[in-house]
Every structure is written in C-alpha cells, then in structure tokens.
Fold each of these.
Amino acid sequence: WLSNPGYLKKPEGYSLLKMAERLDPVYICSDCEVVRTTRSRHCNFCNRCVERFDHHCPWINNCVGTRNHGYFLSFIYFTILDLFFASILIILTLCVDKDIQDPIDGFVPEKIFPDVFYDEGLFI
C-alpha cells in the first residue's frame, strides 16, 4: 500500500517544449514534465503528479491516488474500529464498581464476567 499510488509517467522522446506546442499548457505539469489528466494533480511532498489525486497522507507517508485508494479506506475503517474497541475498554475500566477491587490481590475479574469463569475461579 506504500507503493505507487498512480504516478503519471513522462512520455519518452518528448521535451517540455514539444509538449507545450502540441497540447494546451493547462494539461502539462511544468514540474514533472508530464501530461496531466483532468483529475490528476501535482503533490508537493512527493514532487510527482498523481492520477486521481486525493491527498498526501502523513499517516502512511504517501499520496492517496488511483492505485491505493481502497487500501487507504480499509486503513481508515480499521483505525475507527480499533478506536471503538479501545474506547469500550476504557469505559469498562473507568465505570466498573469499586467493590470488584480486592485490596490484597487487586482486580478480581470473576465479579465482572462471572459467565466466563468456573465456580472455583478458573478460566473455562
């Protein structure tokens, strides 16, 4: 997913001046010297033009474009899922009754989750 997000390639055998003569200058990136499509854009961090450019993501240190957009969406989905489970654990930790704390042994999980344990206090 950190691979090529859809970088545009420079056409071989053409210089920037030849491309400017044949094409509208709006469709030529002067930094990369490539022919841009309508949804491509130049990324200032990568210093390259990306097809269907979304943004440059600092979390993955790469552009989000045509070839890695699905990977980025799954990264966002699993990050949100992880935050959801972490917040549930934090809420459970902060909101449990004070009587489950054993002053000698500390935390007693049998009092929170009695279905998970035997009567003797062993895991199933």
Amino acid sequence: RNFESVEVSVVDCPDLSKPPYSLAAPGLCGEQKVVDIGGPAYLLPLADRSKLYRLKDVAHQVGTTHGLVVGAGAGPWPVVGVNSEMMANVRIEGDEMDIK
C-alpha cells in the first residue's frame, strides 16, 4: 500500500560504536535479552523512591556479564535530585562499565 517496490539485502553489521549510531559497543553481542523493570505502579500515585536498580547488577542477574545495555528508563534521581528520564548506552565487561 505504501511502497510500489522494495529492495533488501543482507550485509555485515556496521560498527555500531561509530557515528551515526555511537553506541558503547560495536555490535549487539549475540545474546540479546529484553528486561523490563518497574513500571507505572512505581510512579503512581507517587514515585516510589525506594526502588533503585544498578544496570550492572540487573545484567548479571539475567546472566549477562559482557554486553551492551541500551534503552529508555527512569534516570538516577539520587544523582540529579529529581525524577528524570534516561537513555542507557552502557557497555558491561565483567565488573567494568563504559557509559557513553
């Protein structure tokens, strides 16, 4: 309905750490996991500030010690002083984290 014709090709993954992507790791690392933590129940009627999560700990709990964490979430209110939004772009290598 929207396209009269489409061309598709399979190519090697580009280095995602370079522009225009600028991720913290060059690829998606091959063992993708989707993790959803918290949600509206922790925000309404008031934000539950007792709920704090460390990305490295969450990654380890789902069996990832090396990889890339990307996505949206709540920002670190103890650091910025208010509720905020976050776009994670973090490479985890064991106990080390590289944040972009």
Amino acid sequence: MECKLFFAVLMGIGAYWYSSRGPASGPSTSVEEGTIRGWQQQLGRPAKQYQRVAVGLNANLDLIVSGTALLRALKQSPGNSADHMALSSVAQLQEVFAFFHGRGSAAERVMTSPSVYKEIVQAADKLEKKKYFVGGNAALMAQTMVESSPNSKVMLVGPVGRKLRNALDKNVDVPATSLQEDDEVHLILEYSRGEKWGENAASCANRFIFSHDVANSELQPLAHFAESLISYNPDLVVVSGLHLLDNKPADFWQPRVKGLKLALTRLPASTPIHLELASIANLDFVAGLATSVFQSVHSIGLNEQELMAVARSAGGPHTSLQTKGPPESGVVSDQLTWLLAKFGGKDSLLSRVHFHSLTFHVTAQIEGHWENSQTATGAAARVAGRRACQQNEIQPQSVDLLFPLAFARSVEDASLRRVPVVYDPSAPVASWKRNGLEFFLSPVLVCKNPQKTVGLGDAISATGLLYSKYTPPSKH
C-alpha cells in the first residue's frame, strides 16, 4: 500500500511540475532548453589531463544498415520472436532482431556459421543505404579520447585492418603488432523510433549487432596488450571486448580472462583501469568474469541489460523484473549499491560504476576515490545527445526529455523511496549519498531523429572517464 501511495504522489508531483515547468525554467522555456542551459552552468572542466592512455582489446569495421531492410533483402518476413545466445541461421537472426526490436533494446550476439555470415554481409553491402564506420568498443573509445583530448597520447591494441586504420584518427597510435591485412566486419542493424517489424513498433531508436569475428572473439590481441602495458607506462587503461568470449566454452575463456587479470595486476595500483562491458547472454560467463576481473579494475561501464545480467548471475536485487522500455532509477540505484558492496571494498580496486541508458546516467562510487564526478556524469549524458543527433551543440527542438520529472532513488531503502527527487533543469545532475557511496544522476536528452545509434555507450564512457580523476589509495 505504501509503495502504491508513493508512486501516486510521485506521479502527481511530476505532473504538477511539468505543467508549471518549475520556477527555474520560466514559462517560455522548454524543459529541454532548460536542461541544456543547466548543463552549461553546472558542469566544469575535466579534472585531469591524462597523458598516456592504453586502450584494448576489440577493434573492427562496422557496416551499418537498416535492420528491416536487410531482413527483407534476405527474404525474411516478421515471425516468431525469441532470444538466442548465439545465431546459426538467417531465421534465428529474424527471431532475435524481432525480440529486441519489440523491446526497443540494444543487444549483441555472435553468428557461429561463417558461411551464413558471409552471405548476410554480402546482402548488406548490396543495400543502397549503408555506412562503414569505426567499430569495436576499444577503437571507438580510443577515437573519442583523441577527439576530446587531443593533447593525450592514446594507444589502441586490437585487430586493425587497412580500412579501419584509414578510418581511425591519425593520432590514434596503433602498434605494428595490431595491424593486419583484412578488417573484421560487424553488422549493425539499426531501427528508428516507431519503425514497425510485424505488429510491433519500436519504442525508441536502437540497434542490434552481430558478427562472426575470429580475432576479437578469441581475444588474440591479449598477449600484445599485456606486453604493451608495461612498455607504454599509461596513466589510464581501458579494457573492452571481453563480451566476445560469451559463446565460448569455459575451458577457452577462463585462461584468457586469467591472463588479462594477471596483466592488470602488474600495473601500479595508482593507475586507474576501466572495464567497459557490452551485451552478454551467458550468465555463467558473466559470473566468471565478475569473480575474476571486477576486483582487479577501478571502474566499470555498463547499461541496463549488462547490469541486470551481473545481478542475475551473482544474486543481486530485482532480478525477477521483466520490463520493457527505459529502466527505473530506483531499481538501478539498488543494483549499483549491491554491485559495489559485493565486488568493491577493502580488498578490491573497484570503486566506481558508470551506468548509462537511453534516458539517464548514474555514476555510483565509493566515497573518497574519485573527483569531479558531477561534471563527468553530466558531460557523458550531454555527449549522448550530441552524438546521436550529430550536433556540436544540442538543439532543444531536436531532443526530448524522456526521464521522469520526479524520480525515486531506491526501491529497497524506505528513507530514500519516500522522498522523491523533483527534477530541476537548472541543475540537471542530482546527487545523494547512501551506505558510504556517492551517486550522481543526469538525464539524457534523447534525439528525436537520431543520425547514429551505434557507439554511443563507448563515447559516453570515454567522456565520463576523461572528466573524472581517480584518487590513489595512498591519498585517502
């Protein structure tokens, strides 16, 4: 009864605030315009200029097409929807695409058949509307860092073919050991908000990614990455691509994950290490990854699907929820609290988690470990709209604020649940403390007609890192 009353009050506060637009915005200012101005006033500059950044391990060339157009070219019609941990046929591709399209959710899977994948790539390449871009979490984060911090030296270790090398910023340093003749191609199936596939209309613009990628999926660059970390002497390390081991048997991924952990433990504890997750279907792999690697990194970046996968694999809260559309802030806050309590703390390096979703971001961190996080969270949320709309400065008529105008900070904690936060666009980044943790939440201004959906999470996490400053344990 208490929860029902709380949410009724929450909706009432939000409805009243929306009708009045709040005292900070003024009657003629939209909430979107107010948010843009609020970011300008509230956000500062990066706390630290990283000098040498090492990024690995996945890099590829993205082939971006319309998902529905490709399925039609493959002579597929809307049919059953189902999730598959891995794909082996065009029919399964249709089922998984329909499954995530119906939820408006991003996802990534592996195609196990090289011949089927080759057939699909050829069909995609024949489409009239197609685009090739830099792809792979590591390559995208390296690219973002060079663009955002041109004075930083950024090294990318991953399989880089000729087309990808030409597409990368010339200031991204690619060691000779990472260069190869052919590119690893990943297919990005995009869809727009309201676009139909069968009876379902997508609730938001998003994308489904799949690939048959040997070099990345076997983590072939790992040995070179481990060697480079010692010689390069970075002051920030970013690791991604582990999700590509998702469909491999345990006796394949376990030694590779162990090798990565060993390489990371050789770095000084004062060098921050960030792990960027991506879509993972195998909960046994998620559990193994969390147990083996989480405590050897200082920071993690993930979205709602990845956060839920971690919670389900390791006994976290709210795992029975089956939701469509954007996640709930209170649920996310509880799961981040649990994650840092379980995997962070005295014997662990982990002290920060950057959660990103379509409508809002949250940075949760152990007190005293990171500085400038309010600005970092807001800057990361802001870059999502800029990248999606392909605008240097967000235009208020191009975006929507889809985040609730009054929101909860917890479901489990009654003291937080009973006091909703009313959104103030003049100060878009809200903050609070809970159980020795600091939380920073910023809404995202969602692009109405996105020009790009792929790579946003990587640009978001890279931006958040560049604005953050890690405080080594010796300074606590």
